[in-house]
Design a protein that fits this description.
heterodimer; A: alpha/beta; FAD/NAD(P)-binding domain; Rossmann fold; 5-stranded parallel β-sheet; 21 helices; globular; B: alpha+beta; Alpha-Beta Plaits; two-stranded parallel sheet; 10 helices
Amino acid sequence: MLSPGLEPYDPKLRNDYGYGKYENVVTSMDYERLLCATGPYQGEILRATDKKHPHKVAWIQCVGSRQVNPALGGNSYCSGVCCTYAQKQVILTKEHDAEAECTIFHNDIRSYNKDFERFYQRTENLPGVRFIRSYVSIGREIPESKNVTIRYTTPEGVKEEEFDMVVLSVGLNPPKEYEKLAGQFGIELNPYGFSKISPGNPMESTRPGVFVSGAFRGPTDIPESVFSASGAGSQIGELLDHRRGKLTKDRIYPPEKDVAQEEPRIGVFVCHCGANIGRVVDIPSTVEYALSLPNVVYAQEQLFSCASNSANEITEMTKEKGLNRVVVAACSPRTLEPLFRDTLREAGINQYFLEMANIREHNSWVHTKEKEESTKKAKDLIRMSVARARYLEPLQEYDLPVNKTALVVGGGLAGMTTALSIANQGHEVYLLEKEKDLGGMARRIGHTLEGLDVQEYLRDLIRKVYRHPSVHVYTDAIITETGGYVGNFLTKVRYDRRDIEIKHGVTVLATGADLYRPAEYLYGEDERVMTHLELDERIAHKDETLLNSESLVMIQCVGCRNEDRNYCSRVCCSESIKNALSLKELNPGMDIYILFRDIRTYGYYENYYREAAGKEVRFIRYEPEDKPHVEAVEEDGRKVLRVTVTDPVLGKKLEIDADHLALAAAVIPSADNDQVIQQFKVNANPDGFFKEAHVKLKPVDFVADGVYLCGMAHYPKFISETVSQAYGAAGRALTLLSHDTVVASGSVCVVNERKCMGCGACISSCTYGALDFVDTRQGKKAGVNPVLCKGCGLCNSKCPTGAISLKHYTDEEIISQIDAAMEF
Amino acid sequence: MIRVMCSGRVDLSFVLRAFANGMDGVFIGGCNLGECNYDTHGNYHALNMVLLAKKIMNHIGLNPDRLRVEYMSSGDGILFAEVMTDFTKKVKALGPLGKGEGLDEQELKSRLAAVSNLVPYIKIAKKEKLATPLKHKSKAEYEALFTSEEIDELLGKPVSYYIDPSKCQACMICARRCPEEAIISVKNQIHVIEQDKCIKCGTCFDVCPSRFGAVTKISGEPVPPPLPEEERTIKRTN
């Protein structure tokens, strides 16, 4: 598995940005360091020349990327990540200094990824932020101020403007010594120095058994990097499954000390989270405050509590100071609670003696401007946590068996790829498809830009799925009911007039997406108007009338990047360019126009954009408030579609008479997504696509344990990306399926029989059947089956006498927090 | 900010405790109704508790707008910020707890203490309603779940239980079954319910052997004082 990453482009290679010559020209990587708490000025953005805050900052996009003549240095491809990281830097700069003036000089804003469009709008709507579309050059350094000027074009002509600091948004290069690496492992590289990958399996190098993940496959953003890593892992699992677990060793923890009889000795660790908390909250004063609280015997600050040295420090201090309760004041327990619990186990005390105070998401991130108040709030939260910590009890966890079968919902490219990869690692897989045939949206695509014959690929995949003894396919299937929990799900399916029950340990949702049916530009009224997918199909069928067109117009962004669908469909720019190139090959004389808002051919797709422009495909930009207009007219006996659009270069209306019109219709969430979301109790983002557990770091997991996602139901994506994510979902599913048990929380209910009056209020409130009456000498009382208890605590709040209580969230623990909230 | 694993874990007594401590507003956040990830739909339980709590607040003269429950998904960050800002604004407009309602601090405290003591009794009396999810119901139907009259009746005339000294045979059954250990029971001594410990669950009433029928339910009248200790010995006639 090769994951050597990438190298940022070095702007010294092309000596035209003054980098290394003018001190206030920095790269985006340098700027990232400036923003960082561990950076040169502890998170203050200062100029090296005078240690002052820069007030006017400019970002220059595409430095080293999208170069027309790469022979002069730089790369022809688009690096794909710089538009959004520059926006992030603008937002952070504005958080440091609300008065800062930020300018981004760009060629197109490529917000093609999930939630990026909203992020772009958020940046653009900040006061004092300008996005300027222009090529630029660095002018000069002003000797007195060390400011730097930038020359750029405006409708009124070339302008020169002075900035305190210039940030070069540098692109992504292959890792250092890529040639050596390729030689060592016997793999081939592409012309840019990244690993050559198979278009149908973007984790596969040219040498069988050598896999690549992350940015060594080409410029890649974090989520794609993460799921390609899981995906490559899954493919390696297919080869090495027979060796799984052979080299693992059980982790040995020190024996657990019984501290139940001891007075609480609480240690408090307050995290700066770099600058995330430390920039807003006065951490030293919270440490001092913590030490003044009853039972707190130790307190300290940490730069990053989650860093391994800090985690070790928690373990060591727990041992050294004889702590028996630990409060970590840091971030949300959702991500790091398991890590901090582990530090307690390492120190030989029960992991449930940990309590976290969330002073980041609940505090510093939302009160960035109110430093004093948020310091006070941090103290309140710490005091409440300390109060609760006094009452914490040691708890034991349970092992639950894992059903080794997987359920995959959706028989498109994504679902089939996931199903096969899981089955190839020795698990039974049930694959459900609502249509009568497998294949999904891919059935409509002829070939990809990279030249993959999609139909042949699909036929091969379907054959493998049907021939695999462990993949059980149900087409025309309807899910009637589903329930259960991680490791033990039960789904009922209506198939061929029968009801089938499937028991499974994991679920993968790969339910795909639909295509928007345009209501604009005469679609559905005039047969010469089609969607880009219909165009793709007609090209594949060598449709004569289409191929004999004199002129064809494509309109981009139909049905998205608008109020109804505030996102970019990601694939349409490249899809239209692919169609344009195919048409140019079949009929070089055809006039092709692409009317666009931004061309978002990220990564290597940029090369096809350039190729299309070279073949005289005409690209005309339009503004959303001045959309093209289409009417059917007859001129000199020729029936045409007259497309009127404003040419931004000439500044006047153009009329194009086209024989055919193709609309880049949006990719939209599948019509039955809502039902899937309800049945499987997962979430959708505001656009109706699946909401993953973490947009960057957990791109194939749902928040609900044991449920994974992949494919277009997550967000529009290319076939290669879908395959990559599908393998990623398989890889994640295997992390569960390869275990015999899952650990269930120790936070379950317990009944104090003496206090139970046998009213049954708890029993009727429990959905899991974890509670039932038991006969005792004192009559009927409630009894708990802790394995079935999920720890919701409904029973606890229904109980009149306090006889039943949810461990770790007892009345005592919660009331201690309520009371502590009001002490000062 | 207090974390619970489900909004349904928020107990009526927590809400009253927060107000008794002087909090000016209490907010409960839950998942969207009907979208429970864990099948429990505990957010409906939270809703019912809040509807009840609001009527109780009304009954004791507190403005029910100081308590709010809202439902949203983890993707609704912006909505959450809007809701919190709005709630803060509204609570600020209501003024400090009690003052805004024109209640004297001591009076407010004693009313909250009294009603807090009745929480077990309220939970028992309203057990069915609290447990019935109001799925797909209108706002008006929510409002109608608990009526002001019903709460006035419940809290205005709470029941009490009393052991009739002339009937008690000192069998100790009631004392053994009392969940609160609120019954003073000594062998051969007439049992006495400690009224300040009693949660009015009625267990003693239910378990007292019918041939004795010593436990009586009193409503709207004061409970007779307990027999002096020296007079509690049972005089058996055999």
